[in-house]
Amino acid sequence: QRKGFETRVYKIDSDSEFVEVEYNSIKDKLKYKIHLTEVGNEIQYEADNVIIGKIFVGITSLITLICLGVYFFGNPEKPGTYIANVIIWSVISIFGFLKPHKDDILIVNGNKLIRLFRTKPNEEKVLEFANNLIKIANEKKKEMLINFDLSEEQFMGNINWLLSMKLIDKTELDELKSEYKLKKLI
Question: Is residue 48 a contact partner of residue 104, using CB atoms and an 8 Å limit?
Answer without folding.
Answer: no
